[in-house]
Amino acid sequence: MKLSDRINRSRPLATTAMHGRADALREAGEPVIDFSIAISHFPAPAAVREAIAHEAGRECILPYTDVGGAVDVRASLCAKLRAENGIEATPDEVVVTNGAKQALYEALFALTDPGDTVIVFRPHWPAYVTTAQLLGLRIVLADLPDSLTPEALDALGPARVLIVNNPHNPTGKVYTLEELGHLRDWAQRSSGHIVVDESYEHLIFNGNHTSLASLCDWRKLGVVTIFSASQSYAMMGWRVGFALAPRPLARAMHTLQGPITAAAPWLSQVAARAAFAGGRPGGMLEDYHARRDLVLDMLAPVPWITMAPPDSGPYLWGDIRALTSDTLGFAESLLEEEGVALMPGDALGVPGFIRIGYISDDIVTLREGVRRIVAYGEYLRAAARA
Ligand code: PMP
């Protein structure tokens, strides 16, 4: 079948592809341990379950809502923005979407034309690059600096859009106030837009998360902020998030969303309203912190992996260049030989590194998966010496 050039130029999203392979092996009866993505083992917050039970107890009339989300849902998201992020916004500047991915696609679609430049810091969440590819954008990958400076930003060159992920997947970097100030200044002196993905805003172990939009005139500078229920509220499958965008862009996102998905599903909007009002799963952050430390402790004595404790997020990002530079091959054979799925850094723009999502299984399985990674690395080292 002849498909479009546009789709033939595009690749499936690496994270979902790896997760799909792990799932297929599991279904075939293989005891696969899946660290390829972060699916929380926590249930949805109690406030969400209550809100859904209440909704289900009514007549179960699930309406088509306004494409950008029911007005009262958007109003409650504005209250969240005010209380938690220090941002004043009105409901017509909020678009409820089927997760951060849809918000990202719509924002990039509405801000760019094919061939426009988008800058992405690497390592990066694969969806930034895959989405930009789908839209035919020119992608400039820049190394994520430990500390962002005005010089580093100027060196990026002109761009239509700069994508910032704060807190950052996979390194856990939480941008400081000073760095956010540099980003604001960059937006002021360039004609580029900043799209900030704040999906991990509540998964912080060290430091404080600040929204760029709270520090600048985001309407005038054309700053877009994306939020998601998936990670901060352990609600991956609910497929709901939202974007805060200056009114003309919010309107454009409506235009795009209307014929594709229309509104996010009503039950997910109800769930989002309850979650974003402050209903996070109790004990989740402490649990993630303990798991993070457990894996770090297990890997500390391993000479071929270097891993800094991340300040946020559900991932560990490790440098295994002392073992191999072929991390794609490592991930492939680790899955085949040891039944452990993880993300090779290649998919995140930095070969030589691996990403471990550590929040999905019980602790015994987590330990076993890490044990298998170490054993496989040791086996490769012994084979190289022989
Ligand atoms: N942004 C980033 C950087 C992510 O890693 C994730 C989860 N993998 C998301 C957003 C969540 O996306 P969605 O809301 O579409 O589930």
Question: What is the structure about, briefly put?
Answer:
With 386 residues, the chain is α/β, with parallel strands linked by helices. It has helices at residues 5-8, 14-27, 46-57, 71-85, 99-111, 126-134, 150-154, 177-189, 218-221, 229-232, 247-260, 266-276, 284-299, 327-338, 363-385; strands at 33-34, 94-97, 117-122, 138-143, 161-165, 193-197, 224-228, 241-244, 306-307, 315-319, 340-341, 343-344, 353-357. The protein is globular, with a radius of gyration of 21 Å.
Layout of strands and helices, then pairs:
Elements lengths: L4 H4 L5 H14 L5 E2 L11 H12 L13 H15 L8 E4 L1 H13 L5 E6 L3 H9 L3 E6 L6 H5 L6 E5 L11 H13 L3 E5 L20 H4 L2 E5 H4 L8 E4 L2 H14 L5 H11 L7 H16 L6 E2 L7 E5 L7 H12 L1 E2 L1 E2 L8 E5 L5 H23 L1
Parallel strand pairs: 1-11, 3-4, 3-5, 5-6, 6-7
Antiparallel strand pairs: 2-8, 7-8, 9-10, 10-13, 12-13
Helix pairs in contact: 3-12, 4-12, 5-6, 5-11, 13-15
The chain binds 4'-deoxy-4'-aminopyridoxal-5'-phosphate.
The site of 4'-deoxy-4'-aminopyridoxal-5'-phosphate has 13 residues, from helix 5 and helix 10.
CATH topology of the largest domain: Aspartate Aminotransferase, domain 2
> How many domains comprise the coordinates?
2
Q: How many beta strands in the DSSP annotation?
A: 13
What is the CATH architecture descriptor of the largest domain? 3-Layer(aba) Sandwich
Helix vs. strand class: alpha/beta
Q: What is the CATH homologous superfamily assignment of the largest domain? A: Type I PLP-dependent aspartate aminotransferase-like (Major domain)
Report the sheet with the most strands, covering strand number, pairing sense and barrel closure.
Answer: 7 strands, mixed
CATH structural class of the largest domain: Alpha Beta
Number of helices: 15
Order of strands, widest sheet: 2-8-7-6-5-3-4
Distance between the termini: 49 Å
